[in-house]
Amino acid sequence: MIDFHCHLDLYADPMKVYDEVRRRRTEVLAVTTSPRAFAKTSQYFQGTDCVRVALGFHPELVKQRPSEKQLFLEQMRYVRFLGEIGIDGSPRAKQSIPEQIEFFDEVIHAAAVYGGKILSIHSRGAVKEVLQILGKYEGKYVPVLHWFTGSVKDAEKAIELGCWFSINPNMCFTATGKRVICCIPINRMLPETDAPFTQKGMEPYMPWDKTVTSYLAKENSVGFQEMNEIFHQNLLSIVSR
Ligand code: MN
Asked: What number of other Cβ atoms are within 10 A of residue 96's Cβ?
């Protein structure tokens, strides 16, 4: 199984989840929410198989922590995976949109210049702003839109821009989510959980959760194992670029 956007460091007992991740051979992209958290999380998971740690700066924190912006831009040079990064236009983060746009623009510009980066991007309530910036810089980086909540039209625009999508279980339960999933080519998607912020009943989702893979297996009339295989091929094609 694969979880391409998981806050592994934010579970109540990350090492316990990690042990299970290894036992089940789950491939996890452990996104972080600040450059400081990245430093700590990479120490934990340094040299471990199964877990790739991404350098992140959650858009909601960008205005509160201006001193970490420079740190992010410096660390960025040395890492392959970035996330989470992006823009958040939801009511509680809206007032910092100008700062978020400015910083995201700077990060994408740098990613395009360096090349080879793989990005897990947050776009809640700000899909148009995110796509506008992605459209500005052509470069050899791979943008993966995490838990996409835009319209079908937005999704089509993103596909044209070369975006990938990590599909959250919650997208399989909403009408818009289902419509968006329908229009994404099967070779541009990966599963994610965004856990522990997302819950299945009373418990957080786990990185080895089967919801997304089961849903897409059914949608594409293939078996569960075959769908899982397709996702692993997709992951391989992203990381071997
Ligand atoms: Mn997240």
From this structure: 18
Q: What is the pLDDT of residues 146-202, one digit of tens each?
A: 999 999 999 999 999 999 999 999 999 999 999 999 999 999 999 999 999 999 999
Rounded to the nearest angstrom, the distance between the alpha carbon of 84 and the centre of ligand 1 is: 6
Domains of the chain: 2-239 (3.20.20.140)
C-alpha 6 – ligand 1 centre gap (Å): 7
- Please give all residues whose CB falls under 5 A of ion ligand 1, grouped by chain where several chains appear: 84, 194
